[in-house]
Specification:
By secondary structure, this protein is α/β, with parallel strands linked by helices. The protein has six helices and 13 strands. The longest helix has 17 residues. The chain is globular, with a radius of gyration of 20 Å. It catalyses: a ribonucleoside 5'-phosphate + H2O = a ribonucleoside + phosphate.
């Protein structure tokens, strides 16, 4: 079977290599990733210029690999539409350096690579190590291998990806979770350059919210559990849809 890997930290990121090492015995490995870091690009795609790519050799990894001068979504789209000889059995994005918790998934290039997989009808996973300081991907890579095996054996609901976050310390266990709410404070640092012009540097720190209960990915990581959250492509709020149909009724506009 074909296993397609991508990420947003770039083709030479240590997390991607660790992921490839853990999965290369599962099938024919193909890697299509950005040529440089593309974190927080969300699901952007490149439409106003051509995409260029080059083959890459990753030491110790038996795989066909390409570096693309585009976004993570570009990489997966290009892979499934042109580069792969056959459709992938699974798309795996990661291992991301840093958490992808709660509302982070809306900005994450790694999660967007997995989303592009399910858009094209393939099972997909995104996996992150929830630390910027630790570069030990051993646990995250092992979790990725086990979850991919389970996904291939038991299947995943169509249109659903698994967003996996692994703590840097030894995990206490695994929780199936819902997305929490990650809100940030002190987002912009206002500064002045040497020529007196004002510029802004986006940063910010996560704010603890009471609504992040024990069933959320945010709280699971705080308690040192691995978090596995199913994310669906359909963003429709069906409860609100029903309310609108019942309470608003038929709407007539005159144009």
């Amino acid at each position: 079977m074909i296993v397609l890997l991508s990420n947003d930290d770039g083709i030479h990121a240590p997390g991607l290599k660790a992921l490839a090492e853990s999965l290369q015995e599962l099938g024919d490995l193909y890697i299509v990733a950005p040529d440089r870091e593309r974190s927080a690009t969300g699901h952007g795609i490149t439409v106003h210029r051509p995409l260029r790519l080059e083959t890459v050799s990753i030491p110790g990894i038996k795989a066909m690999a390409w570096a693309v001068d585009g976004t993570p979504a570009d990489c997966v789209k290009l892979a499934v539409e042109d580069l792969l000889p056959n459709p992938p059995a699974v798309v795996v994005a990661g291992i991301n350096q840093g958490p992808n918790l709660g509302t982070d998934v809306l900005y994450s290039g790694t999660v967007s690579a997995a989303i592009e997989g399910i858009i094209n009808g393939f099972p997909a996973l995104a996996i992150s190590l929830t630390s910027y300081g630790s570069h030990d991907f051993t646990s995250a890579a092992e979790v990725a291998r086990k979850v991919v095996n389970l996904a291939m054996q038991k299947g995943l609901p169509r249109g659903t990806l698994l967003n996996i976050n692994v703590p840097a310390a030894k995990p206490r266990g695994i929780r199936f979770t819902r997305l929490g709410n990650r809100r940030y404070v002190n987002i912009f640092h206002k500064r002045t350059d040497p020529r007196g012009r004002i510029y802004y540097w986006m940063a910010g720190e996560p704010l603890d919210l009471e609504e992040n209960g024990d069933d959320t990915d945010v709280q699971a990581i705080k308690q040192n559990f691995i978090s596995i959250t199913p994310i669906q492509l359909d963003l429709t709020d069906y409860q609100s849809l029903q309310i609108l149909r019942q309470q608003w009724g038929e709407i007539t506009f005159t144009f």
